[in-house]
Amino acid sequence: MNYIIDLFFDSFFKFAAIGQILTKYVQTQNRVYIPLAIGILTNCFNASLHYILLFVFKIGIIGSAISQSSAYLFQCVCYLPYILMLQQSGLTWKGWTNELWLDWGRWFKLAMPGVLMITLEWVIFEMGSIVSGELLRIFLEIDVITMDKRCNYFSSMISVQNMLPLGFGIASSIRVGQFLGARSSIGPRSVVSTALVTLWTASIAFILALSLLRWKIPMIFTSDQDVIELSAKLLPLIATFQIFDGTVGVCGGAIRGAGLQLFGAIVCFISLYVIGSPISFSLVYAGGYGLEGLWAGMTIGTIFEGVIYLITCQHINWEKQVQLAIERTEQLILDDDQLQEGSTNQSTGGVQHSTNIKSSSIKDECVNDEEQIDVQNDNSFREKFQFLTSLHKLFNQSKSSGSLYITMKRYDGRVKPIPKRVQKVKDVHVTNENSCLLRATLGNQKISTVVHQKDMNRFNQAYSNLLKANIDGLKKRDKRVKSTNISSKLNRPKTEKG
Fold first, then answer.
1. Do the domain assignments include residue 198?
2. Which one of 148, 256, 323, 373 is most buried, counting C-beta atoms within 10 A?
3. Membrane-spanning regions, if any (predicted)?
4. Could you tell me which residue, 176 or 141, shows the higher pLDDT?
């Protein structure tokens, strides 16, 4: 009991929770190797401290609780230097301000259903572990010590098989959120499709491996013949469960990334608690099928959950989700610009402009009199003005801060991102019939926007006017700089590169 109290309060309420937050904070920036390296270091530290406290100082089971708590603290400490480095680079952190607390209501509306969604799955499988231990004690009639060893073995097997869906789910959630933040409705579809195909392929190999090695794998963990025989019966079922659990992991991650956590929590509750659990307990206690019945019931519930998630992901209106993402983050983006610039208006190169995309000065500067755009009421064109405003600043900075790079990404038939880099501002390639992702980079500053075909003419006019305002200064540095007609590139043959 002391072990549980010490571990729970010292680790999970303090260091473990903070460690998870820091891990997700880094992972959402596509920085996945640092968390991996820190995880390896933390496990090594944990194992070493366990050995020292249990076998050298021999302080008993309380030493295990101390080791676990210390390992979580070690994980947090490892993240601090890296996050401080990111802070100094100015990529993600701009300091504490009162505005940080303004969107907590919106944040909690997404966070609490997400907590419920994950907790429901975690609790049901922990209940399965408890029932597994009880079944081992009843059906195998073993003593407590032996039962603990067997329960640990099956808990290890459950944890191992859950790693693949968990990893794919995290990746799907992050990438879907990033694509929605980049105003891309194509990206989330590609994420779900790619992740599912990859996972299903890996799951087939996993099933074959577990089925062929079902007598050998248990020998790694135990020499108990009863456990080996029981494992040989269960491993094929566990392997089959992997496919559907993986589908739940990928689609569930996409659903969380799209902000549909409440829907996911409802589906999870119905699938596992209304359908899966009653079937499991009926097969175990009424039907006498033991662990096979337990896993069969959980598999049925997971199949139902996976099918609902899969259908949902195939019918999500990603264009609508992009608009919702804009509404959720628009004010925060403007506040971020204000924090970065220190003011809402700045005069560069004799042209007045503002980080606020609603500013009339930007509208007058970027579009001609024949085609005035109501920026305030045109949500589909707002992000283009945000891009133009930031591009305007980068143009002026490029006169004294080095070369300006514009990077495009398109999606081919396989929906694979293909980068294209163009030096200076010689050319802007549009490499997709429907849309293109424009990215401009100068040093550590990066901006991006998605331009759709229906907006291309307006964007081209605004872009041309913007270049005219800066072209004289740019030509003094590089005579090769020229204004490019973007829309003329739309109908070029697909075989043409770039």
1. yes
2. 256
3. 32-57, 69-87, 107-131, 151-171, 191-213, 261-286, 293-311
4. 176
Dihedral (CA of 450, 456, 462, 463) sign: positive
Task: Answer whether residue 495 is part of any domain.
Answer: no
The mean of the pLDDT values for the chain is 68
Distance of CA 420 to the CA centre of its chain: 24
User: Are 336 and 355 in the same domain?
Assistant: no
- Burial of 86-118, coded b for 16+ CB within 10 Å and e otherwise, reads beeeeeeeeeeeeeeeeeeeeeeeeeebbebbb
**What is the number of domains present in the chain?**
3
Token couple for 96: 């504490």
Position 439 confidence tier, pLDDT thresholds 50, 70, 90: low
- The domain containing residue 434 runs over which residues? 351-489
Based on the fold, state whether residues 215 and 183 are members of the same structural domain.
Answer: yes
434 falls within a domain: yes
